[in-house]
Amino acid sequence: MEQILANGIYLGAQYAMIALGLTLIFALMNVLNFAHGQMYVLGGFVTYTFYGQLGWPFVLALLASCITLAVLGALIERFLFAPVIRRSSREESTMLLAAGLAFLFDAVILLVFGEKQRGVPKIVDGVFNWDFRLIMPYDRILICVLAILSIVTFILFMQYSKTGRALRALAQDRTAAQLMGVNVARYSMIGFALGAMLAGLVGGLLVTITGVNLGMGGPTSIKAFMMVMIGGAGVISGAIAGGIILGFMEAIGLAVLSQYGDITYLLIFVSLMIFLAIRPQGLMGKPWG
Amino acid sequence: MVGPNVDDGAAAVRPVAEAQGIMYFPYAFPKELYTAPASNAVLGMVANYQSGPAIYKYLKDEKGVKTVAFVAANESDPLSQRDGGIAAANALGLEVVSDNVTYQVDTTDFTPVLTPVMRTQPDLLVLSGVSPANAPQLIRSARELGFQGIISTETAQDATVLREGAGDLANGFISVGGASTPEIASDDMKEFVKRYTDMFGEYNDESNTKVYALEYILATLNANPAGIDDVNAFQTTMDTFEAPNPFMKGDAKMRYVGTTSFGQKRQIAVPLVVNVYQDGEFETLFVAEVD
To answer: Per the CB < 8 Å rule, is B136 touching A117?
Structure first.
Protein backbone atom coordinates (compact mmCIF):
# COMPACT_ATOMS: atom_id res chain seq x y z
CA MET A 1 0.00 0.00 0.00
CA GLU A 2 2.82 2.41 0.85
CA GLN A 3 4.39 1.73 -2.53
CA ILE A 4 1.11 2.34 -4.35
CA LEU A 5 0.63 5.64 -2.53
CA ALA A 6 4.18 6.75 -3.31
CA ASN A 7 3.84 5.75 -6.98
CA GLY A 8 0.50 7.55 -7.13
CA ILE A 9 1.90 10.77 -5.69
CA TYR A 10 4.91 10.64 -7.99
CA LEU A 11 2.86 9.92 -11.12
CA GLY A 12 0.17 12.39 -10.08
CA ALA A 13 2.66 15.23 -9.59
CA GLN A 14 4.26 14.75 -13.00
CA TYR A 15 0.92 14.28 -14.74
CA ALA A 16 -0.49 17.41 -13.10
CA MET A 17 2.45 19.40 -14.39
CA ILE A 18 1.93 18.08 -17.91
CA ALA A 19 -1.76 18.95 -17.80
CA LEU A 20 -1.23 22.47 -16.38
CA GLY A 21 0.30 23.93 -19.54
CA LEU A 22 -2.35 22.35 -21.74
CA THR A 23 -5.26 23.62 -19.70
CA LEU A 24 -3.72 27.09 -19.38
CA ILE A 25 -3.53 27.46 -23.16
CA PHE A 26 -7.08 26.15 -23.52
CA ALA A 27 -8.40 28.51 -20.85
CA LEU A 28 -6.77 31.56 -22.40
CA MET A 29 -7.31 30.94 -26.08
CA ASN A 30 -9.81 28.10 -26.40
CA VAL A 31 -7.10 26.22 -28.30
CA LEU A 32 -6.76 22.45 -27.98
CA ASN A 33 -3.00 22.25 -28.28
CA PHE A 34 -2.40 18.83 -29.81
CA ALA A 35 1.30 19.70 -29.96
CA HIS A 36 1.62 19.84 -26.17
CA GLY A 37 3.18 16.38 -25.99
CA GLN A 38 5.69 17.29 -28.68
CA MET A 39 6.59 20.44 -26.71
CA TYR A 40 7.20 18.22 -23.70
CA VAL A 41 9.47 16.00 -25.80
CA LEU A 42 11.30 19.04 -27.16
CA GLY A 43 11.90 20.24 -23.59
CA GLY A 44 13.34 16.82 -22.78
CA PHE A 45 15.67 16.94 -25.76
CA VAL A 46 16.91 20.44 -24.89
CA THR A 47 17.83 19.26 -21.39
CA TYR A 48 19.35 16.11 -22.92
CA THR A 49 21.51 18.25 -25.20
CA PHE A 50 22.74 20.72 -22.59
CA TYR A 51 22.96 18.41 -19.57
CA GLY A 52 23.58 15.02 -21.15
CA GLN A 53 25.70 16.02 -24.13
CA LEU A 54 27.34 19.35 -23.34
CA GLY A 55 27.79 18.74 -19.62
CA TRP A 56 26.02 21.84 -18.35
CA PRO A 57 24.75 21.77 -14.76
CA PHE A 58 21.27 20.25 -14.65
CA VAL A 59 19.63 23.42 -13.34
CA LEU A 60 21.02 25.50 -16.21
CA ALA A 61 19.95 22.87 -18.74
CA LEU A 62 16.46 22.89 -17.22
CA LEU A 63 16.44 26.67 -17.50
CA ALA A 64 17.47 26.36 -21.14
CA SER A 65 14.49 24.03 -21.73
CA CYS A 66 12.13 26.53 -20.10
CA ILE A 67 13.48 29.49 -22.05
CA THR A 68 13.58 27.62 -25.37
CA LEU A 69 10.00 26.45 -25.04
CA ALA A 70 8.76 29.81 -23.74
CA VAL A 71 10.30 31.61 -26.74
CA LEU A 72 8.97 28.94 -29.08
CA GLY A 73 5.51 29.22 -27.51
CA ALA A 74 5.52 32.99 -27.83
CA LEU A 75 6.53 32.81 -31.48
CA ILE A 76 3.92 30.16 -32.24
CA GLU A 77 1.20 32.23 -30.64
CA ARG A 78 2.26 35.48 -32.27
CA PHE A 79 2.84 34.20 -35.79
CA LEU A 80 0.54 31.19 -36.05
CA PHE A 81 -2.33 31.02 -33.58
CA ALA A 82 -3.07 34.76 -33.25
CA PRO A 83 -3.48 35.32 -37.00
CA VAL A 84 -5.61 32.19 -37.37
CA ILE A 85 -7.85 33.16 -34.45
CA ARG A 86 -8.14 36.69 -35.85
CA ARG A 87 -9.16 35.50 -39.30
CA SER A 88 -11.24 32.45 -38.50
CA SER A 89 -13.99 32.02 -35.95
CA ARG A 90 -14.14 28.27 -36.60
CA GLU A 91 -12.63 26.29 -33.72
CA GLU A 92 -11.39 23.54 -36.00
CA SER A 93 -8.98 26.00 -37.62
CA THR A 94 -6.86 26.19 -34.47
CA MET A 95 -7.26 22.46 -33.87
CA LEU A 96 -5.90 21.70 -37.32
CA LEU A 97 -3.09 24.18 -36.79
CA ALA A 98 -2.19 22.49 -33.50
CA ALA A 99 -2.29 19.04 -35.12
CA GLY A 100 -0.09 20.31 -37.94
CA LEU A 101 2.35 21.71 -35.41
CA ALA A 102 2.51 18.32 -33.70
CA PHE A 103 3.51 16.68 -36.99
CA LEU A 104 5.99 19.47 -37.68
CA PHE A 105 7.64 19.08 -34.28
CA ASP A 106 7.83 15.30 -34.73
CA ALA A 107 9.59 15.79 -38.05
CA VAL A 108 11.98 18.41 -36.67
CA ILE A 109 12.82 16.26 -33.63
CA LEU A 110 13.47 13.28 -35.91
CA LEU A 111 15.79 15.32 -38.11
CA VAL A 112 17.68 17.00 -35.27
CA PHE A 113 17.78 14.36 -32.54
CA GLY A 114 17.13 11.10 -34.40
CA GLU A 115 14.75 8.25 -33.64
CA LYS A 116 16.59 6.64 -30.74
CA GLN A 117 15.76 6.64 -27.06
CA ARG A 118 18.00 9.14 -25.28
CA GLY A 119 18.85 9.42 -21.62
CA VAL A 120 20.94 11.53 -19.28
CA PRO A 121 23.01 10.72 -16.18
CA LYS A 122 21.08 10.47 -12.93
CA ILE A 123 20.98 13.76 -11.02
CA VAL A 124 20.98 11.98 -7.65
CA ASP A 125 22.20 8.46 -6.96
CA GLY A 126 20.78 6.08 -4.41
CA VAL A 127 17.45 4.55 -3.50
CA PHE A 128 15.25 5.12 -0.47
CA ASN A 129 14.26 1.69 0.81
CA TRP A 130 11.98 1.30 3.80
CA ASP A 131 12.22 -2.39 4.57
CA PHE A 132 11.13 -3.21 0.97
CA ARG A 133 7.67 -1.82 1.84
CA LEU A 134 8.44 1.45 0.10
CA ILE A 135 11.19 1.78 -2.47
CA MET A 136 11.77 5.05 -4.23
CA PRO A 137 14.98 6.24 -5.92
CA TYR A 138 16.16 9.59 -4.59
CA ASP A 139 16.03 11.18 -8.03
CA ARG A 140 12.32 10.38 -8.28
CA ILE A 141 11.73 11.89 -4.86
CA LEU A 142 13.62 15.00 -5.93
CA ILE A 143 11.72 15.28 -9.21
CA CYS A 144 8.43 14.76 -7.37
CA VAL A 145 9.30 17.53 -4.89
CA LEU A 146 10.40 19.83 -7.71
CA ALA A 147 7.18 19.12 -9.59
CA ILE A 148 5.06 19.91 -6.53
CA LEU A 149 7.08 23.10 -5.88
CA SER A 150 6.63 24.12 -9.52
CA ILE A 151 2.88 23.60 -9.28
CA VAL A 152 2.69 25.64 -6.07
CA THR A 153 4.82 28.40 -7.61
CA PHE A 154 2.61 28.43 -10.68
CA ILE A 155 -0.54 28.70 -8.57
CA LEU A 156 0.96 31.54 -6.50
CA PHE A 157 2.06 33.28 -9.68
CA MET A 158 -1.40 33.03 -11.18
CA GLN A 159 -3.02 34.10 -7.92
CA TYR A 160 -0.93 37.05 -6.81
CA SER A 161 1.14 38.47 -9.69
CA LYS A 162 -0.19 41.17 -11.98
CA THR A 163 0.45 38.93 -15.00
CA GLY A 164 -1.31 36.04 -13.33
CA ARG A 165 -4.36 38.16 -12.52
CA ALA A 166 -4.46 39.41 -16.11
CA LEU A 167 -4.25 35.86 -17.42
CA ARG A 168 -7.06 34.74 -15.13
CA ALA A 169 -9.19 37.69 -16.21
CA LEU A 170 -8.52 36.74 -19.81
CA ALA A 171 -9.52 33.15 -19.12
CA GLN A 172 -12.74 34.18 -17.39
CA ASP A 173 -13.99 36.68 -19.96
CA ARG A 174 -11.86 37.86 -22.84
CA THR A 175 -14.08 40.79 -23.75
CA ALA A 176 -14.51 42.02 -20.20
CA ALA A 177 -10.76 41.77 -19.62
CA GLN A 178 -10.17 43.84 -22.75
CA LEU A 179 -12.66 46.45 -21.58
CA MET A 180 -10.84 46.63 -18.25
CA GLY A 181 -7.62 47.52 -20.05
CA VAL A 182 -5.93 44.13 -20.28
CA ASN A 183 -3.75 43.96 -23.39
CA VAL A 184 -5.30 40.80 -24.80
CA ALA A 185 -2.76 40.21 -27.57
CA ARG A 186 0.19 40.59 -25.20
CA TYR A 187 -1.22 38.43 -22.44
CA SER A 188 -2.35 35.75 -24.89
CA MET A 189 1.22 35.51 -26.07
CA ILE A 190 2.52 35.43 -22.48
CA GLY A 191 -0.04 32.76 -21.56
CA PHE A 192 0.88 30.55 -24.51
CA ALA A 193 4.57 31.01 -23.72
CA LEU A 194 3.89 30.07 -20.10
CA GLY A 195 1.99 26.94 -21.16
CA ALA A 196 4.79 25.90 -23.51
CA MET A 197 7.36 26.67 -20.81
CA LEU A 198 5.55 24.34 -18.42
CA ALA A 199 5.73 21.60 -21.06
CA GLY A 200 9.45 22.28 -21.43
CA LEU A 201 9.97 22.28 -17.68
CA VAL A 202 8.30 18.94 -17.11
CA GLY A 203 10.04 17.48 -20.17
CA GLY A 204 13.38 18.62 -18.78
CA LEU A 205 12.61 17.24 -15.33
CA LEU A 206 11.41 13.87 -16.53
CA VAL A 207 14.20 13.23 -19.02
CA THR A 208 16.32 12.40 -15.97
CA ILE A 209 13.91 9.59 -15.06
CA THR A 210 12.28 8.31 -18.21
CA GLY A 211 14.69 9.43 -20.89
CA VAL A 212 13.17 10.85 -24.04
CA ASN A 213 12.36 9.66 -27.54
CA LEU A 214 10.51 10.87 -30.57
CA GLY A 215 7.47 8.71 -29.95
CA MET A 216 6.61 10.11 -26.54
CA GLY A 217 4.76 13.18 -27.82
CA GLY A 218 1.48 11.65 -28.97
CA PRO A 219 0.84 9.44 -25.91
CA THR A 220 1.77 12.35 -23.63
CA SER A 221 -0.78 14.58 -25.35
CA ILE A 222 -3.45 11.89 -24.98
CA LYS A 223 -2.76 11.54 -21.26
CA ALA A 224 -2.76 15.32 -20.85
CA PHE A 225 -6.15 15.56 -22.57
CA MET A 226 -7.49 12.80 -20.32
CA MET A 227 -6.40 14.71 -17.24
CA VAL A 228 -7.91 17.93 -18.52
CA MET A 229 -11.17 16.13 -19.33
CA ILE A 230 -11.30 14.58 -15.87
CA GLY A 231 -10.65 17.86 -14.08
CA GLY A 232 -12.55 20.16 -16.40
CA ALA A 233 -11.15 21.90 -19.47
CA GLY A 234 -9.59 25.26 -18.81
CA VAL A 235 -9.63 24.98 -15.01
CA ILE A 236 -6.19 25.08 -13.38
CA SER A 237 -7.26 23.27 -10.22
CA GLY A 238 -9.08 20.76 -12.42
CA ALA A 239 -5.91 19.93 -14.32
CA ILE A 240 -4.08 19.32 -11.05
CA ALA A 241 -6.92 17.15 -9.76
CA GLY A 242 -7.08 15.30 -13.08
CA GLY A 243 -3.35 14.63 -13.00
CA ILE A 244 -3.43 13.32 -9.46
CA ILE A 245 -6.49 11.16 -10.13
CA LEU A 246 -4.93 9.65 -13.26
CA GLY A 247 -1.65 9.08 -11.42
CA PHE A 248 -3.38 7.21 -8.61
CA MET A 249 -5.63 5.25 -10.98
CA GLU A 250 -2.54 4.13 -12.89
CA ALA A 251 -0.56 3.26 -9.74
CA ILE A 252 -3.44 1.34 -8.16
CA GLY A 253 -4.41 -0.39 -11.40
CA LEU A 254 -0.88 -1.55 -12.18
CA ALA A 255 -0.45 -2.91 -8.65
CA VAL A 256 -3.84 -4.52 -8.13
CA LEU A 257 -4.67 -5.71 -11.65
CA SER A 258 -1.23 -6.83 -12.80
CA GLN A 259 -2.17 -10.51 -12.75
CA TYR A 260 -4.90 -9.84 -15.33
CA GLY A 261 -2.51 -8.36 -17.88
CA ASP A 262 -2.47 -4.88 -19.32
CA ILE A 263 -6.04 -3.86 -18.47
CA THR A 264 -5.31 -0.80 -16.34
CA TYR A 265 -5.66 1.71 -19.15
CA LEU A 266 -8.59 -0.18 -20.60
CA LEU A 267 -10.43 0.31 -17.31
CA ILE A 268 -9.27 3.92 -17.06
CA PHE A 269 -10.67 4.68 -20.52
CA VAL A 270 -13.94 2.89 -19.75
CA SER A 271 -14.22 4.80 -16.46
CA LEU A 272 -13.50 8.06 -18.26
CA MET A 273 -16.21 7.37 -20.83
CA ILE A 274 -18.78 6.62 -18.12
CA PHE A 275 -17.65 9.65 -16.11
CA LEU A 276 -17.89 12.00 -19.08
CA ALA A 277 -21.31 10.62 -19.97
CA ILE A 278 -22.48 11.61 -16.49
CA ARG A 279 -20.45 14.80 -16.10
CA PRO A 280 -19.21 15.98 -19.50
CA GLN A 281 -17.75 19.20 -18.09
CA GLY A 282 -15.37 17.27 -15.82
CA LEU A 283 -14.99 17.64 -12.07
CA MET A 284 -14.49 21.38 -11.90
CA GLY A 285 -15.50 22.64 -15.34
CA LYS A 286 -18.62 24.65 -16.00
CA PRO A 287 -21.34 23.06 -18.17
CA TRP A 288 -21.58 26.23 -20.23
CA GLY A 289 -17.89 26.26 -21.13
CA MET B 1 12.36 -11.23 -51.33
CA VAL B 2 14.10 -10.14 -48.13
CA GLY B 3 11.67 -9.43 -45.27
CA PRO B 4 9.16 -8.53 -43.85
CA ASN B 5 10.56 -8.01 -40.38
CA VAL B 6 7.44 -8.25 -38.23
CA ASP B 7 5.09 -11.16 -37.54
CA ASP B 8 1.91 -9.70 -38.99
CA GLY B 9 3.72 -8.41 -42.07
CA ALA B 10 5.13 -11.85 -42.78
CA ALA B 11 1.73 -13.46 -42.23
CA ALA B 12 0.23 -11.04 -44.74
CA VAL B 13 2.90 -11.81 -47.33
CA ARG B 14 2.56 -15.60 -47.03
CA PRO B 15 -0.54 -16.21 -49.21
CA VAL B 16 0.79 -13.93 -51.95
CA ALA B 17 4.23 -15.53 -51.90
CA GLU B 18 2.83 -19.06 -52.00
CA ALA B 19 0.35 -18.25 -54.76
CA GLN B 20 2.93 -16.47 -56.92
CA GLY B 21 5.87 -18.81 -56.27
CA ILE B 22 8.03 -16.30 -54.39
CA MET B 23 10.71 -17.27 -51.89
CA TYR B 24 10.90 -14.77 -49.05
CA PHE B 25 13.26 -14.38 -46.10
CA PRO B 26 11.31 -12.85 -43.19
CA TYR B 27 12.67 -11.73 -39.82
CA ALA B 28 9.51 -12.95 -38.13
CA PHE B 29 9.17 -15.81 -35.70
CA PRO B 30 5.79 -17.61 -36.06
CA LYS B 31 6.60 -21.26 -36.71
CA GLU B 32 3.69 -21.76 -39.10
CA LEU B 33 5.55 -19.63 -41.65
CA TYR B 34 8.32 -22.22 -41.86
CA THR B 35 6.66 -25.54 -41.09
CA ALA B 36 4.85 -27.62 -43.72
CA PRO B 37 2.59 -27.08 -45.55
CA ALA B 38 4.25 -23.62 -45.73
CA SER B 39 7.37 -23.85 -47.84
CA ASN B 40 8.31 -20.47 -49.28
CA ALA B 41 9.50 -18.64 -46.15
CA VAL B 42 13.09 -18.91 -44.89
CA LEU B 43 13.79 -17.47 -41.44
CA GLY B 44 16.59 -14.93 -41.86
CA MET B 45 17.81 -14.90 -38.27
CA VAL B 46 17.74 -16.83 -35.00
CA ALA B 47 14.28 -16.99 -33.43
CA ASN B 48 13.58 -16.21 -29.79
CA TYR B 49 12.43 -19.80 -29.18
CA GLN B 50 15.91 -20.85 -30.28
CA SER B 51 17.95 -18.16 -28.51
CA GLY B 52 15.77 -18.25 -25.37
CA PRO B 53 16.43 -21.89 -24.50
CA ALA B 54 20.14 -21.41 -25.23
CA ILE B 55 20.31 -18.43 -22.86
CA TYR B 56 18.18 -20.06 -20.16
CA LYS B 57 20.20 -23.28 -20.33
CA TYR B 58 23.45 -21.32 -20.05
CA LEU B 59 22.13 -19.37 -17.07
CA LYS B 60 20.74 -22.51 -15.45
CA ASP B 61 23.98 -24.43 -15.86
CA GLU B 62 26.48 -21.62 -15.30
CA LYS B 63 24.69 -19.22 -12.94
CA GLY B 64 22.37 -21.52 -11.03
CA VAL B 65 19.17 -19.81 -12.19
CA LYS B 66 16.08 -21.63 -10.93
CA THR B 67 13.22 -19.14 -11.13
CA VAL B 68 12.27 -16.82 -13.95
CA ALA B 69 9.79 -13.97 -14.48
CA PHE B 70 8.62 -12.60 -17.82
CA VAL B 71 7.55 -9.06 -18.66
CA ALA B 72 6.38 -8.03 -22.12
CA ALA B 73 4.87 -5.11 -23.97
CA ASN B 74 1.22 -5.58 -24.84
CA GLU B 75 1.88 -6.10 -28.55
CA SER B 76 1.80 -9.17 -30.76
CA ASP B 77 5.56 -9.71 -31.23
CA PRO B 78 6.61 -9.30 -27.57
CA LEU B 79 3.64 -11.37 -26.35
CA SER B 80 4.44 -14.12 -28.81
CA GLN B 81 8.09 -14.04 -27.72
CA ARG B 82 7.01 -14.15 -24.08
CA ASP B 83 4.85 -17.23 -24.71
CA GLY B 84 7.74 -18.91 -26.53
CA GLY B 85 10.06 -18.04 -23.65
CA ILE B 86 7.66 -19.44 -21.05
CA ALA B 87 7.40 -22.72 -22.96
CA ALA B 88 11.18 -22.91 -23.26
CA ALA B 89 11.70 -22.18 -19.55
CA ASN B 90 9.15 -24.80 -18.56
CA ALA B 91 10.79 -27.33 -20.86
CA LEU B 92 14.11 -26.71 -19.13
CA GLY B 93 12.55 -27.24 -15.71
CA LEU B 94 12.79 -23.61 -14.60
CA GLU B 95 10.04 -22.34 -12.32
CA VAL B 96 8.12 -19.45 -13.92
CA VAL B 97 7.12 -17.21 -11.00
CA SER B 98 5.51 -14.39 -13.00
CA ASP B 99 4.31 -14.48 -16.60
CA ASN B 100 1.30 -12.18 -16.96
CA VAL B 101 2.64 -8.69 -16.31
CA THR B 102 2.50 -6.58 -19.47
CA TYR B 103 2.91 -2.91 -20.19
CA GLN B 104 1.75 -0.45 -22.81
CA VAL B 105 4.36 0.17 -25.45
CA ASP B 106 4.29 3.92 -24.72
CA THR B 107 4.96 3.46 -20.99
CA THR B 108 7.63 5.82 -19.72
CA ASP B 109 7.71 4.91 -16.03
CA PHE B 110 8.12 1.21 -15.35
CA THR B 111 8.38 1.27 -11.57
CA PRO B 112 4.67 0.61 -11.01
CA VAL B 113 4.75 -2.06 -13.74
CA LEU B 114 7.66 -3.94 -12.21
CA THR B 115 6.75 -3.63 -8.54
CA PRO B 116 4.52 -6.76 -8.51
CA VAL B 117 7.09 -8.72 -10.51
CA MET B 118 9.86 -7.87 -8.06
CA ARG B 119 7.78 -9.28 -5.22
CA THR B 120 8.12 -12.73 -6.81
CA GLN B 121 11.93 -12.44 -6.41
CA PRO B 122 12.97 -14.30 -9.58
CA ASP B 123 16.57 -15.30 -10.27
CA LEU B 124 16.11 -14.19 -13.88
CA LEU B 125 13.96 -11.40 -15.26
CA VAL B 126 13.24 -11.81 -18.98
CA LEU B 127 12.22 -8.70 -20.92
CA SER B 128 10.44 -10.49 -23.75
CA GLY B 129 10.76 -8.81 -27.12
CA VAL B 130 11.75 -5.56 -25.45
CA SER B 131 12.47 -2.62 -27.74
CA PRO B 132 15.77 -0.76 -27.39
CA ALA B 133 13.78 2.30 -26.26
CA ASN B 134 12.15 0.50 -23.33
CA ALA B 135 15.03 -1.74 -22.24
CA PRO B 136 17.07 0.89 -20.30
CA GLN B 137 14.04 2.15 -18.40
CA LEU B 138 12.95 -1.37 -17.47
CA ILE B 139 16.46 -2.29 -16.34
CA ARG B 140 16.80 0.91 -14.36
CA SER B 141 13.44 0.47 -12.64
CA ALA B 142 14.17 -3.17 -11.80
CA ARG B 143 17.56 -2.34 -10.30
CA GLU B 144 16.20 0.63 -8.39
CA LEU B 145 13.52 -1.61 -6.95
CA GLY B 146 16.32 -3.71 -5.52
CA PHE B 147 16.44 -6.52 -8.08
CA GLN B 148 19.86 -8.17 -7.97
CA GLY B 149 19.24 -11.13 -10.26
CA ILE B 150 20.02 -11.45 -13.95
CA ILE B 151 18.10 -9.55 -16.63
CA SER B 152 17.98 -10.84 -20.18
CA THR B 153 16.14 -10.54 -23.46
CA GLU B 154 16.07 -12.47 -26.72
CA THR B 155 16.13 -9.31 -28.82
CA ALA B 156 19.14 -7.30 -29.98
CA GLN B 157 19.89 -4.06 -28.15
CA ASP B 158 21.84 -0.83 -28.60
CA ALA B 159 24.80 -0.26 -26.25
CA THR B 160 24.66 3.54 -26.57
CA VAL B 161 20.99 3.64 -25.65
CA LEU B 162 21.64 1.34 -22.67
CA ARG B 163 24.54 3.48 -21.50
CA GLU B 164 22.57 6.71 -21.73
CA GLY B 165 19.38 5.33 -20.26
CA ALA B 166 20.59 3.01 -17.54
CA GLY B 167 24.33 3.61 -17.13
CA ASP B 168 26.06 1.12 -14.86
CA LEU B 169 22.71 -0.34 -13.84
CA ALA B 170 22.69 -2.11 -17.22
CA ASN B 171 25.93 -3.98 -16.47
CA GLY B 172 25.31 -7.70 -16.74
CA PHE B 173 22.28 -7.32 -19.03
CA ILE B 174 22.18 -10.25 -21.45
CA SER B 175 20.85 -9.87 -24.96
CA VAL B 176 21.16 -11.46 -28.36
CA GLY B 177 23.80 -9.90 -30.54
CA GLY B 178 24.14 -9.73 -34.27
CA ALA B 179 25.48 -12.55 -36.35
CA SER B 180 29.01 -11.33 -35.96
CA THR B 181 31.34 -10.43 -33.16
CA PRO B 182 34.93 -9.22 -33.32
CA GLU B 183 36.02 -12.74 -32.43
CA ILE B 184 34.38 -14.38 -35.46
CA ALA B 185 34.02 -11.53 -37.99
CA SER B 186 35.97 -11.95 -41.22
CA ASP B 187 37.76 -9.12 -43.02
CA ASP B 188 34.80 -8.88 -45.43
CA MET B 189 32.47 -8.35 -42.49
CA LYS B 190 34.75 -5.73 -40.98
CA GLU B 191 34.88 -3.92 -44.29
CA PHE B 192 31.08 -4.03 -44.51
CA VAL B 193 30.85 -2.51 -41.03
CA LYS B 194 33.31 0.21 -41.98
CA ARG B 195 31.44 1.12 -45.16
CA TYR B 196 28.12 1.07 -43.31
CA THR B 197 29.51 3.32 -40.58
CA ASP B 198 30.96 5.75 -43.14
CA MET B 199 27.60 5.95 -44.85
CA PHE B 200 25.20 6.07 -41.87
CA GLY B 201 27.32 7.32 -38.97
CA GLU B 202 27.06 4.31 -36.68
CA TYR B 203 26.79 0.55 -36.96
CA ASN B 204 24.50 -1.55 -34.84
CA ASP B 205 25.63 -5.17 -34.66
CA GLU B 206 21.98 -6.25 -34.79
CA SER B 207 21.92 -5.42 -38.49
CA ASN B 208 24.55 -8.10 -39.06
CA THR B 209 21.66 -10.52 -39.26
CA LYS B 210 20.49 -8.58 -42.29
CA VAL B 211 23.80 -9.03 -44.07
CA TYR B 212 23.19 -12.68 -44.74
CA ALA B 213 19.89 -13.03 -46.60
CA LEU B 214 20.98 -11.49 -49.90
CA GLU B 215 24.27 -13.42 -49.83
CA TYR B 216 22.34 -16.67 -49.28
CA ILE B 217 19.96 -15.91 -52.13
CA LEU B 218 22.78 -15.13 -54.56
CA ALA B 219 24.87 -18.12 -53.50
CA THR B 220 21.90 -20.48 -53.79
CA LEU B 221 21.10 -19.16 -57.26
CA ASN B 222 24.76 -19.52 -58.14
CA ALA B 223 24.57 -23.17 -57.09
CA ASN B 224 21.46 -23.71 -59.18
CA PRO B 225 20.59 -20.91 -61.62
CA ALA B 226 17.27 -22.59 -62.39
CA GLY B 227 16.05 -21.33 -59.02
CA ILE B 228 15.78 -17.81 -60.41
CA ASP B 229 12.28 -18.50 -61.75
CA ASP B 230 11.55 -21.95 -60.36
CA VAL B 231 10.70 -22.00 -56.68
CA ASN B 232 10.80 -25.80 -56.54
CA ALA B 233 14.34 -25.81 -57.93
CA PHE B 234 15.36 -23.22 -55.34
CA GLN B 235 13.87 -25.30 -52.52
CA THR B 236 15.49 -28.50 -53.75
CA THR B 237 18.86 -26.76 -53.84
CA MET B 238 18.37 -25.53 -50.28
CA ASP B 239 18.37 -29.11 -48.96
CA THR B 240 21.95 -29.76 -50.01
CA PHE B 241 23.30 -26.23 -50.39
CA GLU B 242 26.61 -25.39 -48.79
CA ALA B 243 29.04 -22.56 -49.55
CA PRO B 244 31.86 -20.72 -47.77
CA ASN B 245 30.63 -18.07 -45.33
CA PRO B 246 32.34 -14.82 -46.31
CA PHE B 247 31.35 -13.05 -43.12
CA MET B 248 33.01 -15.39 -40.65
CA LYS B 249 36.62 -16.35 -40.03
CA GLY B 250 37.84 -19.86 -40.68
CA ASP B 251 35.98 -22.47 -42.69
CA ALA B 252 32.46 -21.56 -41.62
CA LYS B 253 29.79 -22.57 -44.13
CA MET B 254 26.56 -21.05 -45.34
CA ARG B 255 23.83 -23.67 -45.28
CA TYR B 256 20.16 -23.98 -44.59
CA VAL B 257 19.04 -25.30 -41.20
CA GLY B 258 15.85 -25.43 -39.15
CA THR B 259 15.00 -29.13 -39.25
CA THR B 260 14.71 -29.31 -35.45
CA SER B 261 12.43 -26.30 -35.15
CA PHE B 262 10.41 -26.57 -38.36
CA GLY B 263 10.79 -30.11 -39.65
CA GLN B 264 12.40 -28.78 -42.85
CA LYS B 265 15.35 -26.60 -43.80
CA ARG B 266 13.70 -23.20 -43.77
CA GLN B 267 16.24 -21.11 -41.88
CA ILE B 268 19.61 -19.70 -42.82
CA ALA B 269 22.52 -20.71 -40.61
CA VAL B 270 23.73 -17.62 -38.80
CA PRO B 271 25.68 -17.83 -35.56
CA LEU B 272 23.72 -17.30 -32.37
CA VAL B 273 25.72 -14.67 -30.51
CA VAL B 274 24.73 -13.90 -26.94
CA ASN B 275 26.12 -10.69 -25.48
CA VAL B 276 26.44 -9.24 -22.04
CA TYR B 277 26.49 -5.48 -21.56
CA GLN B 278 29.41 -4.19 -19.50
CA ASP B 279 30.51 -0.57 -19.01
CA GLY B 280 29.08 0.83 -22.21
CA GLU B 281 29.88 -2.07 -24.52
CA PHE B 282 28.67 -5.52 -25.40
CA GLU B 283 30.95 -8.43 -24.66
CA THR B 284 30.38 -11.84 -26.18
CA LEU B 285 29.04 -14.24 -23.60
CA PHE B 286 28.90 -17.25 -25.88
CA VAL B 287 28.42 -18.18 -29.53
CA ALA B 288 26.25 -21.12 -30.52
CA GLU B 289 24.72 -22.68 -33.62
CA VAL B 290 21.13 -23.37 -34.45
CA ASP B 291 19.86 -26.34 -36.33
So the answer is: yes
